[in-house]
Input
Amino acid sequence: MGRTVTISEELYEKLTLAMQEQGLQSIEQLLELWQAYAVERRRRQEVVHGIDDLRDRFHAKYGDMPDSVPLIREDRSR
Output
């Protein structure tokens, strides 16, 4: 079911320009694209938070872990 939304001419012009820059055929497509980007951004933020939580749990369980770069260099130099 369609809805009518009242927006200013200025906003309409900005949306139309953004739509054209994205190569889309309608403002509706632009809004759907932006909504998909927002969903993906939220998903990525949740993943980052999950990684941060895992890192915190490892730190609580194992303490500070030294940098492994010197050990890797030592192994490669043998």
Notes: Residues 9-77 form one domain. The chain has one domain: 9-77. The chain is about 75% helix and 0% strand.
